[in-house]
Amino acid sequence: MKRWIRGILIAAASLLALWMVQEIGLRIHVELPLKTDFYGASMR
Question: Alpha-carbon distance 28 to 33, whole Å?
């Protein structure tokens, strides 16, 4: 019984850690500055 509870806790902790890594990566990616400004991206 205790092994079963421990497995559930490990799985929950792993999912939480994976979610945190993805959230941090997404926020870093969104906060990076763009390589071109608005006028540099338009076609002429």
Answer: 10
CA distance 12 to 17: 9
Q: How many CA atoms lie within 13 A of 42 on its CB side?
A: 4
Q: What is the pLDDT of residues 4-30, one digit of tens each?
A: 999 999 999 999 999 999 999 998 888
Amino acid at 1: M
Where would I find the H helices in 1-44?
Answer: 2-31, 38-41
Q: How confident is the model at residue 37 (pLDDT cuts 50, 70, 90)?
A: low
Opening angle at CA 9, ends 15 and 21, nearest 5: 25
